[in-house]
Amino acid sequence: MIFAALIAGAFVVGGTDGFAASSSAFSGGNMLHHGPRSSQAFSMVSTPPTPSTASTSSAPLTQDQFNAYVQNTYGRYPLTIVRGEGCKLFDSDGKEYLDFVAGISTCALGHADSDLAAAVGDQMKKFHHVSNLYYIPEQGQLAKWLVDNSCADRVFFCNSGAEANEAGIKLARKHASTKLGIAEPVIVTAKKSFHGRTLATMTATGQPNYQKNFGPLVPGFEYATYNDPEDLKRVVKRINRRGKIRSLFGRPRRAVAAIMMEALQGEGGVVPATPEFFSTVRELCDETGALMIVDEVQTGMGRTGKVWGYQNFDVEPDVVTCAKALGGGVPIGAMLCKERADVFEPGNHASTFGGNPLACAAANCVTSKLSENGGALLENVRERGEQLRAGLAELQEKYPETVAGVRGWGLINGLVLNEESPVLAGAVVAETTKLGLLLVPAGLKVVRFVPPLVATAAEVSTALSVIDQALAIVTGAK
């Protein structure tokens, strides 16, 4: 019961890409006890004159010891994962779990993939890092694949989704300044969006709960309702109209520099964009000269059954951002852009680790898997996604008072719970975890399924059986 309550309460504040937990949900119990250091929070501690050898032991810390040293920024489940294999994970007690979280849409090839391990190991034996002041063959190879398999012409490499979105934001601002003559650029994003946790990407995120206590926010962002073309038109028109009036009085011109949208809102509840909405984004950008930025951090690299989520629509963006599955779990991000948007020059933007040989070796392994055997991996994503949605739809019929619907693409799907039902996504996840299936909420009322892209038909069937059992438990049907 305590475990269920912890998980159910963990998502009161926000989404799960960082597990923003409410302090009330995790303040009690041993789960977040801070051990012996907590009583010394305000005492002066001297730095040892030589490095301590106390932490060189291979024995893992207990959860209490872990919390004594690691900052409390995640609402962690009381599981200690020690190894993985394919779509399975194993905890420190030897319990096996079917992993339908995949590091939150990250471990595209599953765990301990032999080809990925070999690619990273071989690269380590050659050289793993050099400065971007030199040409890096592995980076060039990856950039070519990304350009050849997208609508983009150039690539900038970084380390994470937030960094990729930061790069897109900076690119849009410079494009607005140098190409459109906009002195005060505005980037329009969506309500309930998620773009990262840096100051700029947190401001771009249209969820006030992520922004609380971190003001002042970065200026130059406004929000429209996702999948509401008319509201988006109103927002863009209002910004540009008021900007023209300002300029008549000699004030700096304020106008829309970019419209930045997710192809599917993951943290916002696994909500795919509609074709009409994305067409409207493209039309408004064409009319105003603004850049269309698509955040593919969670949907890119095959997650939707296509390489990119935007390929589900008949539009092409000017800028695409990605990370997560790009390296299969090895940190790497990228910002791709069309030639007309390629306004960066040496010194405008940089990243120490971005596109280093080690990360690119991992990403090149992922891209080869997406390309080999005629795109068989993407076909598996589509087939397993159809199987999963069909099975979840059957559960909707079986539990009509609890389950409201199913939505998603490929292998990013959400089981939507009825707003009137007392059952929360966290409670369902708590039960599936006990039963050996790892899932993750997307808000209070959506259970998210983002397994590795290599998930088999048998594994999807197992997941459906477990979620059925969990729903029976939380609804009192069992």
From TrEMBL:
SUPFAM superfamilies associated with the record: PLP-dependent transferases
Cofactor: pyridoxal 5'-phosphate
InterPro entries for this protein: AcOrn/SuccOrn_fam, Aminotrans_3, Aminotrans_3_PPA_site, Class-III_PLP-dep_AT, PyrdxlP-dep_Trfase, PyrdxlP-dep_Trfase_major, PyrdxlP-dep_Trfase_small
Signal peptide span: 1-18
Localization in the cell: Mitochondrion
Pfam families on file: Aminotran_3
GO annotations of cellular component type: mitochondrion
Highest taxon, organism lineage: Eukaryota
GO biological process, one term: L-arginine biosynthetic process
The EC number(s) this enzyme carries: 2.6.1.11
Gene3D superfamilies (alphabetical): Aspartate Aminotransferase, domain 1, Type I PLP-dependent aspartate aminotransferase-like (Major domain)
Pathway: Amino-acid biosynthesis; L-arginine biosynthesis; N(2)-acetyl-L-ornithine from L-glutamate: step 4/4
Main location: mitochondrion
GO molecular function, one term: pyridoxal phosphate binding
Keywords attached to this entry: Amino-acid biosynthesis, Aminotransferase, Pyridoxal phosphate, Signal, Transferase
Region annotation (Disordered) ranges: 37-58
Membrane-spanning ranges: none
Family of this protein: Belongs to the class-III pyridoxal-phosphate-dependent aminotransferase family.
NCBIfam families linked to this entry: argD (TIGR00707), PRK01278.1 (NF002325)
Protein name: acetylornithine transaminase
Annotated organism of origin: Ectocarpus siliculosus (Brown alga)
Gene name per UniProt: ACOAT
